[in-house]
Amino acid sequence: MRSSNPVFSRRGFSRDNGYAGFNTAPQAGGVGTQSGNPYADQQAQQGGNPYATNPYAQQDLQHGAPPQAPVSTGRMTMDDVVMRTATTLGVLVVTAALAWALLPVDDANINRSYGIAIGAGLVAMVLGLVQSFKRKASPALIVTYAALEGVFLGVISSVVDNRIASGAAMQAVIGTMAVFTAVLVAYKAGWIRVNRRFYGFVMAAALGFVLLMAVNLLFAVFGGGDGLGFRSGGLGIMFGIIGILLGACFLALDFKQVEDGIAYGAPREEAWLAAFGLTMTLVWIYMEFLRLIAILQGND
Questions:
Q1: Dihedrals φ, ψ of 253, to 5°?
Q2: Is the model's pLDDT at 151 over the cut of 80?
Q3: In this predicted structure, which of 9-23, 62-76, 205-219 has the lowest mean pLDDT?
């Protein structure tokens, strides 16, 4: 399973431990073909479903039965995903709280605190990229990423909450939880159909969004101010909402990957990759909420 942050390339379940990954071609004698989608086709296997194949199980070709997850140990379960995600988010929250308390953002200390936060954020980004391209999950790397991301978020949240918009951090947390719950309910109810078209649309939109933000950052660095104005005023509000909607779409993709992995017997260690992807997506949504709240209250 790949990370879900739009900044990073999305990668399918690994094929380690003898299991084929979502990005691998079907076995000889099987059905379906590989596509550019990180999930392989399973139209012939599951009644024309164009989205995902589940290579962890073998289809009963003689009787035409659909693939079923083997009943055995060592396979990923929902409890595994929940526990790993709780671990990464717990580490992130603890380090964020420590950074908030130990790295003050008053006039005398803000430069030092900012420097530590930016350094932690850059290292976390590098670790995220490394894990995104690794074939296997590295729990130590993922937990370290969460800890450093927490330091970054703690300082940034403190700056926004204490110097720009009082209460913004709690509002952003509530907004992130609300989006997570809404997407989960919509996904389980079948209101969101995650298929190849959905995946292509989300990835194209995310690529355009990230490129625009990168251009805006370059203009801000070399030209001063807010660059092209994508992070302030009316444009900032619009792009903040778009960023939150993109995060919600990536949550749906994450839920689909987790559901397929569990249903078709992904190795248990893949739960760390599920936790990694969900954590990155939730961080993305939280940051977009924090920016949006800062813009809205800062304009008052």
A1: -65, -40
A2: yes
A3: 9-23
Contact yes or no for 38/1 (Cβ under 8 A): no
**Which own/partner pairs from 112-120 qualify as long-range (CB within 8 Å, at least 24 positions apart)?**
113/155, 113/158, 114/155, 114/159, 116/151, 116/155, 117/151, 117/152, 117/154, 117/155, 117/156, 118/152, 120/148, 120/149, 120/151, 120/152
| N-to-C CA span, the chain | 43
What angle (nearest 5°) sits at the alpha carbon of residue 13, between those of residues 10 and 19? 155
For residue 32, is it left (φ>0), alpha (ψ between -120 and 50) or beta?
left
The token pair at 124 is 């976390």
What lies within 8 Å, CB to CB, of 150 at 6+ separation is 91, 92, 93, 94, 95, 96, 98, 99
The two three-digit tokens of residue 51, written as one number: 């989205």
**In the numeric block, which tokens belong to residue 233?**
């005023």
123: nearest Cα among 146, 92, 157: 146
Amino acid identity at 57: A
Whole-number percent of the chain with pLDDT over 70? 73
- pLDDT, tens only, 52-65: 444 444 444 344 44
Q: Is the pTM of this model over 0.90?
A: no
Question: Which single residue is written with the structure tokens 């700056």?
Answer: 159
Closest CA to 155 of 209, 119, 191: 119
Helix ranges, 110-138 (H): 110-133
> Residues 75, 79, 82, CA angle at the centre, nearest 5°?
120
Residue 283 has pLDDT above 70, yes or no: yes
What average pLDDT does the segment 268-287 reach? Answer: 95
